[in-house]
Amino acid sequence: MHFHGTIWRPPYEADALLLQATAGCTHHACKFCTLYEDLPFRFRMSPLEEIEADLGEAQLWGTDPMVLLSARLQGLPRPEGPRRVFLVGANPFVLQAKRLEDIAKLIRRYLPTVETIGCFARVTDVGLKSDEDLRRLRSLGYDGLTVGVETGDDEALAFMNKGYKARDIVEQAGRLDGAGISYTFFYLAGISGAGRGAEGALRTAEVFNQTQPKRIGSSMLTVFPSSKLYQEIQAGNWREESELEKLGELKVLIESLNIPTRFETDGASNLVRVRGNLPEDRERLAGYLENLIAGADEEALRAYRVNLRHL
Ligand code: SF4
Q1: Ligand 1 shell residues, CB under 6 Å
Q2: 158 lies in a domain?
Q3: Nearest residue by C-alpha to atom 2 in ligand 1
Q4: Looking at residue 250, which CATH number applies to its domain?
Q5: Among the atoms of ligand 1, which is closest to the Cα of residue 162?
Q6: CA–CA distance, 261 with 251 (Å, rounded to integer)
């Protein structure tokens, strides 16, 4: 398989076949981001021949005599082909609809068991597609996009150079809904900066409450020295939220969301694991965070953050 650099995928895509369609990020400008800094280029589109070669390799999973023998010897059922493909890269959904269509057709040809195709997408990637494009992509299997919106706080979006505004999130999410493409939002606690965590959460809830994400996956901001944000902090232009403020921000967000959705903190950046369905688990999750905040020690929490070497 062809893979460039560190491969990032959401925790809930663990069962999907990872297929490289792009590498790196077309935006490459968010101040806090260091995710694709190990690549010698900003963005690369995989040639179709490369994708086809990877699919040919993946196809062997269900037919390789050694795999079949191993399953039989272990008393396991005959391995089935993958049901889902996750296209890797920061934003494969930026590709032209025709290119995504060609990739979907290749996937279908080599792996007929695949039912859906997911990937990371930027809000602006959705904006590049017509409604007809989106409907066609849905009919070809694209579903369950992960959109790293981070926040609905316009001040934070602008400072961090995300390249869109809160109103764009609502607009493009509505277009995905219209096409029947489900999506998960990534939220980034801490992005609003010291003293603004609760406000950022409230503004985000206002935005998210106008959308229909099937899941909100929340991470916590970790500032790495190689980021532009680190330089901003050094220059005195921005201050980090304390870890306790981030936890409080999370609580405000959970309390303010009034849409039915799954809420999960997953990944190494999170100090705590919070998982549940909203609205029914709202009180349980908020209560858990409240107790945690009451008994937590900022220094100990901070020690976790500063010792985190990699996300
Ligand atoms: S869009 Fe995502 S991957 Fe690209 S720079 Fe921003 S946070 Fe990083």
Answers
A1: 25, 27-30, 33, 35-36, 90, 122, 148
A2: yes
A3: 90
A4: 3.80.30.20
A5: 6
A6: 15
